[in-house]
UniProtKB/TrEMBL annotation:
One of its GO terms (molecular function) is L-threonylcarbamoyladenylate synthase. The keyword Nucleotide-binding applies. It comes from Desmospora activa DSM 45169. It is found in: Cytoplasm. Residues 21-207 form the YrdC-like domain. SUPFAM superfamilies: YrdC/RibB. This is Threonylcarbamoyl-AMP synthase. ATP binds at residues 66, 70, 125, 151, 159, 203, 241.
Length: 357
């Protein structure tokens, strides 16, 4: 199929001013009529389909090559729009939604059974969220249907934070792509189950555990966060975010970190691999490899989250076969970064302990 691509420059434009844009109107009509449209959110680009249309939803799985037992997040223009599709919004859900919607937070709630069965993968619950990106808000407002939207990439590949990533993965496999520039947060939304008395974190993301605890007090962490038999949330079962080359993550500090990573890089080169090192601004001049790429600064976790997936995709473009990546202590936004790095490396993580400061 031919993929329609719209470029929307929205600097200074509000969601209200974007609603009447002919490109938004055309994309919204596509969604209502069962077609696939990729669009920017504040986290990553999403691949949207009418969540009440089973045929449309099934086409998401086909386009992405996504396993059918992996549930989808449903996006709404606001909390009121979500109410008609869920059993209820629990009190903790209301409090979190009031604090973080629109924004990078997905709430797991019970649904009414009116969504397409493929959305929920047979579960009694569904993930719902209200994205903050003005293009996403305008599109959802004009589409006037619930929109199921996983990340707009081929399954298993790094999530797309630029329209060009989507184009390379899905051109010819979807009906439309709204190019709205670089997404903001860079990692997907936080996913929290609010069906029980204590909210349960299922996937770390753009809203941190510490931020949520400031709003609702106690938030538990799912012990199955690194993999469960039946996924209650996207991103907790299958290999995700992975570059093509073999990848290792090393957690440490100072000279101990640099020495270990350089040793592993040297070993890879001795074995004939094209070697890449994923580092931060603080250590960018400390390594020798075929390619040394940075994804932000340790002093600015948001910068690392924003450019992580871009950098992983860059390694693929360069044909890197052996990747050694710096890891981080799992707190704040770095918890979300480490979740993605660990999955990208398929759990190949080396923790050096305290090391040198």
């Amino acid at each position: 199929m031919d993929t329609r691509r719209w470029r929307i420059y929205f600097d200074g434009r509000t969601e209200a001013s974007l609603r009447d844009d002919p490109m938004i109107q055309e994309a919204a009509t596509m969604l209502r009529t069962g077609k696939l449209v990729a669009f920017p959110t504040e986290t990553v680009y999403g691949l949207g389909a009418n969540a009440a249309d089973e045929t449309a939803v099934q086409s998401i799985f086909t386009a992405k090559g996504r396993p059918a037992d992996n549930p989808l997040i449903v996006h709404f223009a606001d909390e009121a729009a979500a109410i008609g599709w869920i059993l209820e919004m629990p009190e903790n859900g209301h409090r979190l939604a009031s604090a973080f919607w629109p924004g990078p937070l997905t709430l797991i709630v019970e649904h009414l059974g009116t969504l397409a069965p493929a959305v929920t993968a047979g579960l009694p619950t569904v993930g719902v969220r209200v994205p903050a990106h003005p293009i996403a808000q305008a599109l959802l407002s004009q589409a006037r249907v619930p929109v199921a939207a996983p990340s707009a990439n081929r399954s298993g590949k790094p999530s797309p934070t630029q329209a060009e990533h989507v184009w390379k993965d899905l051109n010819g496999r979807i009906h439309g792509l709204i190019d709205g520039g670089h997404s903001g947060v860079g990692v997907e939304s936080t996913v929290v189950d609010v069906t029980g008395p204590v909210p349960l974190l299922l996937r770390p993301g753009g809203v941190t555990l510490e931020q949520m605890r400031q709003v609702v007090g106690s938030v538990a962490v799912d012990p199955g966060l690194q993999g469960v038999a039946i996924p209650r949330s996207p991103g907790v079962k299958y290999r995700h975010y992975a570059p093509q080359g073999e990848m290792w993550v090393v957690i440490g500090n100072g000279e101990a970190l640099v020495k270990k990573m350089q040793s592993m890089a040297d070993d890879g080169r001795a074995r004939g691999y094209t070697v890449g090192i994923l580092t931060t601004e603080e250590h960018r001049n400390r390594y020798r490899a075929d390619y040394v790429l940075t994804c932000g600064s340790r002093s600015n976790p948001a910068s690392v989250a924003r450019y992580l997936f871009d950098t992983l995709r860059r390694f693929d473009e360069l044909g890197v076969e052996w990747i050694i990546a710096e890891g981080f202590e799992e707190e704040g936004l770095f918890d979300s970064v480490m979740n993605r790095l660990s999955k990208a490396a398929e759990g190949q993580v080396i923790d050096l302990g305290e090391g040198d400061i």
